Amino acid sequence: MKFKHLYRTGLAIVAAACMLVSFQSCNNEDIDGAPVISNVRLLDPTKADSSLTAAEPGSMVVIQGQNLGSVLKVYFNDFEATFNSALGSNSNIVITIPANAPTKAVDAGVSSKIRVVTNGGEATYDFVLTAPSPVISGLYSEFIKPGGNIVINGDYFYNVKSVKVGETSLQIVSSSVKSITAKMPATATVGAVTVEGEFGTAKTNFKVNDNEGNMVNFDIPATSWGSEVCWGAAPIMPANDPGAISGKYSRIKGTKLPATGYNDAWVFSTCSFDFKLPAGPAADRQFKFEHNIAEPWKAGKYDITITADKSEYTFSFQPWNSTEYAATGYQTNGWRTAVIELSEFKNAAGNTITDVSKITDLKVLFNTPDVVIASFNGSVDNFRIVKK
Prior knowledge:
This protein is elongated. The N and C termini lie far apart (89 Å). The chain contains one helix and 27 strands. It folds into three domains: 94 residues, Immunoglobulin-like, CATH 2.60.40.10; 74 residues, Immunoglobulin-like (Sandwich); 174 residues, Jelly Rolls (Sandwich), CATH 2.60.120. The N terminus is likely disordered. It is mostly beta strands.
């Protein structure tokens, strides 16, 4: 009996082993069989039943099919993608479409296919890589003279069809993927900037040549008695000066500027003025102004002080003090908009402005406390606080 029991047990083990070998053999045959792609979906498990025929470069997707376990290479529009085979299976490949894979925006002749290479062969699948919609990151200057050039910075400016300020179409002077230059009309124009490309439209949330949130622009009085500023002797240039961008402006121009922390000729300020700024915290706002630095700037700074609820909040504007401009100095190509997060203005305790509507003063002081400046030619205008 014991012999029969052992014999039967041995036969069972042998049979199980044969079944395992047979299963592994079949599995190996599946892995090395000809690959098939049946679907592409998003990785998001909540959208697992989705089916894609197109996606943007940079998207993470799942390629589904059969005999994908021995995958060697994956291509999108003949551009090879990297992947982690450990995340896949015989029926799935988890992969990120390369961010720099070509699209029809840059090459009209792309294949619009996914190609998978395995030990068992190749499989292709019709799949379009779509270009992202255009994005506007900002303007070189938010104030532009009539007939001047507006420079729009951003990305994905593919096959630009039109550029508008408000409802006015502009002549496109030049265009690249990251920058557009267009000519403003001969008459003063105020409005948001819209860029229409082949793959979508982008629009600024602010208007060019707009006085919204104005604090000091040397044209609109910033005192109760009608003067441009309350005190300070910083030169104010007339609106018809050739260097003007939008009316009167302030300019400091000289040589051998002495090392000093204060000079009345380098400052302008208001005196407890109601700017009628809407309520809200600093985190929701930006401080902007236009500046024109006509020659390399390598020392000195603009100390900008905002008074709110009887507390002073300060920011030092010195863009030359950075790795980018350390060697050459900072210089603009005409007027340029400075954009500073209002939360960067701090009081002595390190706090930010809690309510913008309580702002009562603005003081701008150029100073050079460390060294004598051999030469400086800097202009400023249109100080304002706006919503992001």
